[in-house]
Structures are given as structure tokens and as C-alpha cells.
Amino acid sequence: MSETGGVLSTVSGGTRSRPMNVVRWLLLSDYLVLALTALYVAALWFFVPEILSPTNLRDVFLQILPLFVAAMGLMMVLMVAQIDLSATSIMAMGCVVGASIMTDQGGYLAEHASAPVVAILAMVAIGLLIGVLNGVCTIVFDMPSFLVTLTTMMFFSGAAVWYTAAHTSSGSSIGGLPPAFIEIGYGGVAGIPYAAIITVALAIVVHLVLTRTVFGRWVRAVGLNPRAAAISGVPVRAVVVGCFALSGLFSALAAIIYTARLEAGTPILGQRILLDVIGAAVIGGVSLFGGKGTVIGVLVGVLFLSVVDNGLQLLGLSLSSVYAIKGGVILVAAVTDAIRHNLMARG
Amino acid sequence: MQINRRQFSATFAAVAASATMPLLARAEGGKTIALMFDAFDSDFWITGNVILKAKAKENGWTTLETISNRDQNKQNDQLKAMVERKVDGIIFIPTDNNAAIPAIRTANAANIPIIFFNRPPAPNDNKYVAIQADNRKIMQTTVSNLVDLAKKQGGKYKACVLIGDLGDNNAVQRRDGALDILNANKDIIEVVSQVATEWNADKTFSGLTNAIQAHPDINMLISPSDSEDKIIEQVLKTAGKWHKTGEDGHVLFAGFDGDQNGYQLLSTKYMDVNGVQNLFYEADLAYGAFKDIWAGKPVDKMLIDPGFAISQATLDSKRDDMWGYHVWKEKNK
Amino acid sequence: MSDLLLKVSGLNKSFFGVPVLRDVGLELHRGAVLGLVGENGSGKSTTMNILGGVLAKDSGRVELDGEEVAPTNSRDALALGIAFIHQELSLFPNLSVEENIFLDHFPRKFARLPFVDRRTLRDRAQKAIELVDLRVSPVTPVMRLPQGERQLVEIAKALSRQARLIIFDEPTTSLTARETERLFTIIGRLRAQGISIIYISHILGDVLRLCDEIAVLRDGQVVGAGPRDDFTIERLVTLMVGRTIDRLFPERNPVSGPQRTALSVRGVSQPGIVKDISFDLSLGEVLGVSGLMGSGRSELARILFGLDPYSEGEIRVQDAKLPPLAPRAAMDRGMAFLTEDRRGEGLMMEASISDNIVLPSLVEQSSGFLRWLNPSELTKAARDVAERIRVNAKAVDRTAVRTLSGGNQQKVVIAKWLLRAPSIFILDEPTRGIDVGAKYEVYKIINEMVGAGAAVLFISSEIEELIGMADRIMVMGRGEVRGFFSRGSFDRETLMGAALWE
């Protein structure tokens, strides 16, 4: 029996018709979510043909990038059968600290040429530190990561608000970021935006690490069976802490892109998108139980969520229906995934 | 698979049904404007939404709506979608006045007029119009009225000032306006407590309760939003301080916004003064600005709604301009 | 009412075009015990799963008391009176005995309302557990019961559902000798009550002892069936495997002359677990470790490999002290550890065969500072070692270990360590739950390794196995070493006696 999704032959003696076979293949394949996305776009095209206009496609592409980065980070944690609820608070904390360094309204390195670089380094450092904190608390104190990261999430989102208030006289965000930094959000090389270059590079690195390095295999092993991994000589604790550190790092990197786009340090950055980040990973095939996940899968999940959002935005429907429809679409995706698992289990 | 088809058909039908409105507009060729909200966290915004839509309809325009749920990044993305839909004008209610600036640039690049409604952006050089209630001035007028009443009653006063979310410019303005007048009357009024409520019901409840516990003789209360009225009533009732004007132990009470609760409390004599943002006027200002811009006429960057203060004395004469009164009237037909 | 309870005829089943059962037919009389024997992969489990409603048959006929039945899930099967007691019991350890027995049919206070009638529950549970000779209070949480008593709870559960047919799947693998005897007594009692039993087991001696009739499956077909007296162990093995196996244990060429000491253990103690363990293990030697369950053998193995701590004593590998709590260090010195729980600790069930095989060797197979791997090289290495020990699977990099039989799974675990060419191999119950043919192959592999110079520590609860394979046997009891026996003085009774000595 084949483990990976793929075309499965019909059961002997079965009486299925060809169309049913196609549907069955579709449901069982790993491209299900992609197919649903295409279906959605096709359906919406009748109402808002703008959904396929070049400018809209470009907008959606740019929107996907930071979400993809954050979701890849979260994937690392999910793969070792843990969860990181603090991802978006790390973004917020990094965002305001970085802004406080760069801002020309009294920042620590205001007007300095090195300000953007130092700010970026600071944001990365914050991501790594909080990530390591999450990992160590989970492993050393043997607490469920849900609890640990929930605590850090609350702590750092509060800290971010306090930090912002301490650094601005009025208002709830830190503006006045130097143009050199904002370039990251808008500028590019040879027509390719910086954000895209960063994201693609990260995606390639993560993919290679997962498929071609010892660490990647260790991550999978720890997620599938940590006891067996330990007996096989895998340094389980170090791997788990490493994954949390990566999640923190990627949250910080996503925050860099978001901050550059918003041109402000805001403590509520990302507050609403935690479920999008985790949802994108799960829809993209990353198992909540660990051991399973691919970069392409996460990309597909991110694409699905972003396209659903974009479609609804274009429709501009009365606000009460927006959430219902988004929920309905995600529900369809979840139900079809469940049916798929049932089919695979029954053989 | 049956389930998949059926469920998708249901969603399909729902999308089709609710999406027809914007499509008809496309067919007619009338003007389309986008109403971009951040959250419906108070009656002001819910009514605002209704009023803006109604007035748009009066003008023969179609409306597209978005809600950002307090995520500025999402709202900036939503604006791009509205640009994609080629709307003729955008009403924008941002969450973060700094992070909204990139959105202005997007609108400028597409040559679509963008009007900030009730929440202006941080100062910047791009093209926009901001409708703003002069919160500070309205609160000053309101509190002045309250202080006059206090002086007429005589005696000394201990005041508690509720403040909204310190991140919200409007809240900061209102606090400043209140303190301007209160601090100028230090001889009879002492501000014993300032409570930051973050526009949050639980924090309002606990903050006010704590303030009264610490200072049981508070007899003046200034609230920055009528959305807090019900909670204030709850707390004061529990503390035995909920009395009408003229009764013993009445706490001089000033509210802000002018919503239906404000009207209710004014008419039942529990509230003394209310600072009203003239929502009707602000909507007219906005749509007037659209028409001017479309006609090529120059428009000021800041259009101010001076608002007004309404008290028990002026209740009958001024209530037609109070947006909350109309809501109250509808409900109590 | 005929004497025949169960009649299965012409049963066929295929998975993805691969036939798994071919024209299988069985007969079972009321109050009789039918022994079902066969290697893993022979179709025993599939047949029983069809009877128990877990799988659907492709064609064929199942008759219960003359009526055709086709249960579509386990509830249907239960309603028909078929109870299936799996090897891994399906009890809820956090619930009490009475709750487990009546989980799906609690006596209620008022007809359909969801209020449990506790008193009736207590009474009925008490009666049910008396039927199986279980002397515990019905409110005892199942997690406090040893394996043997848990199994009795499962039987009580089946009886409370008025089962007419009880299927036992490998019931004695986790039982002590005394518990096994008790189980057999109960089975005798069930027979007397007219309940029919299907008994599946690899322990052929037990099958011959218990059963009235025996059926042998091989490759999805019934290759022999009849009353017990028609069969001997040799005939059963021949039918199961398809060829004669002269001996149960392969030839060993004992290594001559003194050998270097590979592992030297002195005075290792851990309070409450093991006390003052000392022994030497030489290269080219098989040291068997015998003892009852709970004697501390597996715990000792975990300590030696560095998974658990110890408070006193010293462990030396090839004359250098081994740091405690460092499995990686143990592996670097050439140690390997096959645990007794292959599902929980030996394998990643959802991963492929090759993923499992290469896991402990990843660092050695990698190159460069970033530790790059070459997937095709890894697969090749995995395939080579898998072929060497005849793991029966086509595509090692695409077959999930979960789909393999117990014997093949165990071979994968062995392969995983073989890839490292260990010099000291600790085996904890290496042939538990695998069939005769696979066992023989495992013994052969062990002999090959030893012949090539490795040292093996062989922990087993089957004394016959140790007598057949070991050079010396160390008997443990209650966490201590009770004695050493050399090949010349191997004797079943003496060894049992040493283990049982209080």
C-alpha cells in the first residue's frame, strides 16, 4: 500500500463509475486544496472578474509573502507535535522594538545610517530569544506548549502595548520610519520585490533543511515518535527547542516585512492573524499531531486562505455575510479533508 | 462526492444571492463608493454605517463594504481590493493612524479620493480629506456646561474622569478637553481619579468600581463614550449612587457621543449633559467633499464637525440633531 | 438447534487488487474451541476482522446458528453475540472495572434518560467479574490492574453482552505463567457454558493443549483443518510455513577460545529498580537474561543504554567507562538496543521502512558542517540491509511500517541497528508476537551477528528460546541477579526455580 497520495487503482470487484473515480482521486490527492482554490476563483470570477486581473494577482502575491514566512515557522513547531500561540505576539514585540530604534521621532538611532540594520538585527534577536524561551519552558518544565506559548503570547502582546506607550507621546503606534527600511516593503531588484526574494530564499532553505539535512529528519522523527527517536540517538530536547527558536525567528522575519509595509511600529500587528497562520499550515497538510509537513503544502494553505479573503474583499458584501462565507468555505475544506482521511484509512 | 457537491452548491447560492447588489450597480453605471470600517465596537459606528449607506442611497450611489477587525494591515489590503473594483470614492475608518498612511498612497496612485471619517491619519504629505469631530472642543463645551450646573448647585466636587483607549486619538482628545475645564476650576472641583477603560466593558466596570471604592464621595463623573453608559449605571446603582438630578446624592454626569443611551439618560434625568458628535453633519461633509472632488473643486484637508453639547434644558430643542435620538425613537415607537 | 454455531464458507477479500483471503472456510461447534494458526500475513487477522465487523468481505458466506450474518461494524458484531478480544485490549485505563464492562450499555434509572443506575451497575458488575474469577472491587480503576486481570475484565465485558462466540487474538503474550493458567481455566468454564471460542496464537503448545479443533492458514487459504488429535507441533509448523523446519533454532557455530570483554558491568544499582548488578559480556557470546515479568530486565537494559539513570556502579564498554544517560555515547561505542515495545519505542509507524532504518545512522551518513544527506544513498543503504534480512516489502521508501506484519516490523527494527554494525546488541523480547517462520529468521540473523564477532544480551520470557540460543543465561528476580547458568547445565526447571525463588 502506498503511503503518499497519488493515483490509487480502484478496488477489485468494485462498481464505481469513472467520474466517481476522478472525484475519489481528487479527494485523496495532496492537491485537493489547490483544486478547491481553483474552484473558488472560478466561481467568483463570474461576479468579480477583477479577481484574475494582473494587478489583483500581484496584490495577492504580495499579501501571501509574510503570511507564508510566518506559517513556515509555525510548521516547524507543529512538526514536533507542539504549538506556538505566541507567533503573532513575537511579531508585535519585534515590530515595536525595531520601530523604536529606527524612528526619526526620537528613536534610539534616529537619523543614523545604520538604524535599519540594527533594528532588523534587534527584531531577529527578539524572535530568537522568545522562541528559545518558549522551547526551554516547554521542555525543561515539561509543560504543554499550548500553555507556555499562551502565556508568552499574553505577556508579550501586553509588553508591546506598554513599550509603545512608553515610546510615543501620543497615539498608539510609532511612525516615521526611515525610507531605507520602508524600501523592504516596496522596493525590489530588477522588478522583483525584496519581500519576494526574502520569502523565496527562506522557502528554499526550509525545504532543503527538511528534506536533505539530518536536522530535518530529526524533526520528523521527534514529531512521529519522540520515544523511538530518543532511543535512536536523536537529541530530542535540542530539536524541540530549535524548532521553537525557528518559529520565533520566522515570526520576526515576517514582522520585518509587515512593518515595512505599514511604515509604523504597531503593537497590535498580527493580532488577528494567528488563526490564519496556524490554519494555513493545517490546511496545507501539516499535521497537528506532528511528523508531517511540507513547504509546498504550507504555500498552498496560505494561498487558499489569502484567495478566499481576497475574493470576499472584492465582493464588498454587506459585512454580516463576510464571516459566514469565510467560515463556510473553510468548513468545506475541513470536511473534505476529513472525508479524505476516512477513505485512506478504510483502504 | 455528494456531500462536497451539495455543500458547495449551498455556498455558491449564498454567494450568488448576496453578491447581486454590487453587480446591479455595475450595470447601471452609477457611482460606487467603498465604506471601509474597522470594527463595530460601539453604537456610533453601527449607526454610522447605517447613515452612510442611507445617504449614499439618497445620492443614487452603490456601496461596497469591508471590515478590518482592527487589523490595519488587512485594511490596507482591502483598500487595494477596492481600487481593483474601481470605486469612485473611499470612506476610510482606520485603526492605526500611522499605519494607515500607505493606504493613502495607494488611493492617490489610483486617483481615488479617500476620506478619513472621524479618525484622521497622522500628519503626512499625501492627498486626503479628514472629517473630524473636534473632540477636545466638544468635550470642553460639555464639561463647561456641567461645571455651570455644579456652580449653580454649589458645594465642592470630587470628579472621576473615564478615558477610552489611550491609543485612540479621539479618546486622548476628549480627556484633554475634560481636564482643560476641570483643572481651570480647581477651586470647586478636584479630579481624584482617571480610569483608562481601553474601550473595554470589563475594564470600565472594574476600573470605575475600584475608583468609587477608593473615593466613595465621588460626585462628578465624565465619560468619553455613551457606549459605557449601561456599565456606569450598573456600577453606580451597586454603589448606591444612581440618583436623578435634583435628588439627594445625585452624581453630576457628563456623557459623550450622543447615542440612544445618552438620550435615554438625559430624558430620564440621570445624565446632565452630553457631548454630541453630529454624525449626520459628518456624513454630509464627507459626501459633499466627494462631490466637490469629483467636480474638480479644491477641498480642505481637515473638515471639522464642531458638534454640540445637549443638556436636560436643551433636550427638546436640540434633539433632532442628536443621532442617538433617532435611534431611540425607532426603538421606542 | 444444530450443534454448529459458526459456519464460514467461500470467504474472499482483496486490498487494492491484492487477494488476502481465498475461499476461506471454517466450522465451529457450540461449546468448542477452534484454534487458528498461521504466520503473520496468512489471513488470520483479516478473517477475524470480517467476523468482528471491522472489515467487509468481498464475497462468501458467514452463518451464525444457521442464519447468514454480515456485521458492518463492531457494534453489529456485538449485537450478534460475537466478541473480539484483541491483543491490545480495548479498555479505558482511567475508568473503573464496572464502567468498562458496561460502557456501552449502562443500566439506567429511568428508561431513556441519561442517569446511570449505580446500584444495579454495581450488582451486575460484581456478578460479571465473579464469572471470571476476578477478585477485585468493581470500582477499581483499570489502570491499577496488571495485564492478566485486565484481560479478565475484557472477558467479563464479552460475557455481559451475552456473547456466543469469543475470539481471542494472541491472549498470552503479555501474561505471566500463572495468569495464563487462570485464562485456560476460564476458557474451560466458558466452554462448559456452551460458549464457542476461536483461539489465535503462535504458541503452538498452548493451541494443542486447549483446542478441540484446529485450522491452519497460509497465504490466505486454509491448508489444514480438523480435530486436534490430527496435529502435532511438527505438522502444524510444516503447514504454516510450507516446508519442514527440522529444528526451531538454527545451527550455531560457537566461537572458540577466549574472547575480549565487550561490556563490563559492576555493582549497578538504582533504588527500587535494580540492585548490585554485575556481569561481563564477551564478543561472540550470547548472554541470555531470564526472569519473570517485573524482574527488572528491561529496566536494566534501559540503564545500560543510557536512557535511565543509575545511582551506583560502573559500566565499561571495551575497557572505557561509559558516561550515564547518554544514548548517543552508547551508540558511538557500538551499542544497539532493541526495545520490547516496537510500536511505542522502536518504530515510527507512519514513516516508511527506509526512514525508520536510517534514523540512528543519519549523522554518520551525512556530510559537511550542515549535515547534508543524499536521499537516494540513504534509500539504497536501507534497501541493502532490508534485503539482507529479508524484510518482505517491495518499495522500502514508500511503504509505511504500519502496514507490515509484526514479524516484518521487528525485522525493520533489527535492520535499523544492523546498519550501524553494532558490536554490542541488547535485545529485549526480540521475537514477541511474531510467527514461527519469522522467529527462525530472527534467530538466524542473531547467530550471524554473533558469528561475525558481536556480543548479544538476549532478554526473553521464553525459557525454551534462551535454552536454544544462549551460551550463558543470567537469571534475574526482583531487580537482582539470581544466578548464572552455562550451556551445559541448562535445565528448564532449574531456571524457573531460580527465577521464582523468593
**Mean pLDDT rating of chain B:** 87
- Between the first and last Cα atoms of chain B, what is the distance in angstroms? 52 Å
| Total strand segments of chain A | 2
- Strand-residue proportion of chain B: 15-25%
According to CATH, what is the topology of the largest domain in chain B? Rossmann fold
Low-confidence stretches of chain B: 1-29
Number of helices of chain B: 12
Order of helices and strands of chain B: HEHEHEHEEHEHEHEHEHEHEEHH
Helix content of chain B: 40-55%
Secondary-structure-derived class of chain B: alpha/beta
Rg of chain B, alpha carbons: 22 Å
Order of helices and strands of chain A: HHHHHHHEEHHHHHHH
**Number of extended strands of chain B:** 12
Highest CATH level, the class of the largest domain in chain B: Alpha Beta
Itemize the secondary structure elements and their pairings.
The complex is a heterotrimer of chains A (347), B (333) and C (502).
Chain A: H1 18-28, H2 32-45, H3 54-79, H4 87-102, H5 115-140, H6 145-167, H7 179-186, E1 188-189, E2 192-193, H8 194-212, H9 214-224, H10 226-231, H11 236-262, H12 274-283, H13 295-315, H14 319-346
Antiparallel strand pairs in A: 1-2
Chain B: H1 2-28, E1 32-37, H2 43-58, E2 62-67, H3 72-84, E3 89-92, H4 101-109, E4 114-117, E5 129-133, H5 135-153, E6 157-163, H6 169-184, E7 189-196, H7 201-214, E8 220-222, H8 229-238, E9 252-257, H9 260-267, E10 273-276, H10 279-294, E11 302-305, E12 308-311, H11 315-318, H12 323-331
Parallel strand pairs in B: 1-2, 1-3, 3-4, 4-5, 5-11, 6-7, 6-8, 8-9, 9-10
Antiparallel strand pairs in B: 10-12
Helix pairs in contact in B: 2-10, 3-4, 5-6, 7-8, 9-12
Chain C: E1 4-15, E2 18-29, E3 33-38, H1 44-51, E4 59-64, E5 67-68, H2 74-80, E6 82-85, H3 97-101, H4 118-131, H5 147-160, E7 165-169, H6 177-192, E8 196-200, H7 204-210, E9 213-218, E10 221-227, H8 233-241, E11 261-270, E12 274-282, E13 286-290, H9 297-305, E14 312-317, E15 320-321, H10 327-332, E16 335-338, H11 342-346, H12 353-358, H13 362-365, H14 375-388, H15 406-418, E17 424-428, H16 436-451, E18 455-459, H17 463-469, E19 472-477, E20 480-486, H18 492-500
Parallel strand pairs in C: 3-8, 3-9, 6-7, 7-8, 13-18, 13-19, 16-17, 17-18
Antiparallel strand pairs in C: 1-2, 1-4, 4-5, 9-10, 11-12, 11-14, 14-15, 19-20
Helix pairs in contact in C: 4-5
